[in-house]
Design brief:
Elements lengths: L7 E6 L7 H11 L3 E6 L9 H8 L17 H4 L6 E7 L1 H9 L5 H7 L5 E5 L3 H5 L1 H12 L3 E2 L3 E4 L5 E5 L3 H12 L8 E6 L4 E2 L5 E2 L6 H12 L3 E6 L11 E4 L3 H11 L5 E4 L6 E3 L19 E3 L3 H6 L6 E8 L3 H12 L3 E6 H4 L4 E2 L1 E5 L2 E4 L3 E2 H23 L1
Parallel strand pairs: 1-2, 1-3, 3-4, 4-5, 8-11, 8-13, 11-12, 13-16, 16-17
Antiparallel strand pairs: 6-7, 9-10, 14-15, 17-19, 18-21, 19-20
Helix pairs in contact: 1-2, 1-8, 4-7, 8-9, 9-14
Bound molecules: ligand PMT.
Length: 402
């Protein structure tokens, strides 16, 4: 049975070389739990086969207005009903011109004209076609008509030229679509998030760190952005792309993370500590590399780092505070002790050995009302559930304060 809450997108392909990226786009959308129905123009079928997109989307692909697989015989109407958005990627200059004039001479352009849902387009064309005044006029007009335009980007083009007009990457389109479809549970809220590990230097080249990859924290930042929040992300050293739309500050040590949090906290409604902050740092890190020939035995003196989350929660007017606890045993008990000790509204508990560095996570949410277990799922999915829970608690806190 299909899940009625599952978002549905009609993905339209028009005839451009960027159509090959649509295979990746279908994957990226379905990974985010979005159901994809593909519709292709005749020209698009010259670049990629319907069979490929059918296999990836798990749904039959439609190319023809007169397709008899639609019971009513009204494919041009039926296919977009119950759809949350039509996304056309790639959208050629010709297709965009058709939108401007309301032309409906094939299945995709007719669906676009007869739609009741939002339309998003990702233009893809040669730089001269993009720069042409006619295209620029058309783009301005479709924006006025309420169409959302994603990209294009600048760079190498299939024709060998370099410039503006290439379609943005599948991942960027998927991210924009999923953000567009997400309920805006945190609209207007200012969210400060820490993510990743910290690195505490021993000498000029060595240091103490942990295995946090930043995946959970970055997923939480993306979920908060999707929910309409203004997001500031303070990140330890990770190799992940910055979430589009977040203000990112890169730090290395716990002390630097603390300073960055102090700078932003006054403008924060919700603080989420996902970072695996080192509890200790080396007392006096050496400026130069320690030579083992000089010091065959080495003793390091470690001193405690400040508790950033505890400090934020103890402010006179603290924001809503959520922390994460990675434990290797007694998960619920230790996490709840931490929640009470740090005086935060929510603690997200996960098993360190399963969560750290992994793509999936299984968490328990601990708050005043008790414990709520979330099933193991990709960190993206878990992050959205955490943000939905935070939005609920934050909304209740605000109502109480009024
Ligand atoms: O980055 P990934 O590979 O995706 O892994 C994600 C994760 C396992 C690191 C993440 O889900 C997680 O659990 N983060 C918290 C790690 C942890 O054990 O924190 P803690 O128990 O040391 O601290 C509890 C809370 O206090 C955390 O919110 C932490 O950010 C905060 N803290 C801790 C120490 C300190 N000096 N300052 C803090 O603010």
């Amino acid at each position: 049975m299909t899940d009625p809450s599952r978002k549905k997108v009609l993905l339209g392909l028009t005839g451009g070389i960027a159509a090959y990226k649509a295979a990746e786009l279908v994957r990226r959308l379905t990974e985010r739990g979005i159901e994809v129905q593909v519709v292709m123009t005749e020209a698009a079928c010259g670049f990629i086969t319907p069979a490929t997109l059918q296999a990836l989307s798990g749904n039959p692909v439609f190319t023809d207005m007169w397709d008899t697989r639609v019971a009513s015989g009204m494919a041009h109407i039926e296919l977009s009903r119950g759809t949350d958005a039509i996304v056309v990627a790639p959208a050629t200059a010709d297709f965009i011109a058709k939108l401007v004039h309301g032309l409906a001479d094939d299945l995709l352009s007719t669906l676009a004209l007869a739609r009741e849902c939002p339309l998003l387009v990702a233009p893809a064309m040669n730089r001269q076609m993009w720069d042409h005044p006619a295209t620029q006029r058309n783009i301005a007009q479709i924006k006025r008509d309420g169409v959302i335009v994603l990209g294009p980007a600048s760079g190498d083009q299939a024709c060998g030229e370099v410039g503006m007009g290439r379609m943005i990457e599948a991942e960027e389109i998927a991210e924009a679509v999923s953000a567009f479809l997400a309920p805006k549970l945190l609209a207007g809220a200012r969210v400060l998030i820490t993510a990743g590990p910290t690195f505490e230097p021993i000498d000029a080249v060595r240091g103490i760190t942990n295995r946090s990859s930043g995946k959970m924290g970055y997923a939480v930042a993306r979920a908060a952005l999707e929910a309409g929040a203004e997001v500031t992300l303070i990140s330890g050293p990770v190799s992940l792309p910055a979430p589009a739309g977040a203000k990112v500050t890169q730090v290395e040590t716990a002390a630097q993370m603390f300073e960055a949090v102090k700078r932003h906290v006054a403008r924060t409604d919700i603080y989420i500590g996902v970072a695996a902050v080192a509890d200790y740092r080396v007392d006096k890190p050496r400026q130069h590399k320690i030579k083992k020939t000089v010091e065959p035995q080495l003793q390091l003196k470690l001193v405690p780092n400040p508790d950033i989350l505890g400090w934020v929660a103890a402010r006179p007017k603290p924001p809503f505070c959520a922390g994460f606890a990675a434990e290797s045993r007694n998960l619920d008990a230790y996490a709840d002790q931490k929640r009470r000790r740090k005086n935060v509204q929510l603690m997200v508990a996960n098993l360190a050995q399963q969560a750290i560095g992994a793509d999936d996570n299984e968490v328990t949410l601990l708050d005043d009302a008790g414990t709520h277990r979330l099933e193991r799922a990709p960190k993206e999915v878990v992050a959205r559930q955490i943000i939905a829970h935070i939005a609920k608690l934050y909304g209740a806190k605000r109502r109480k304060a009024k």
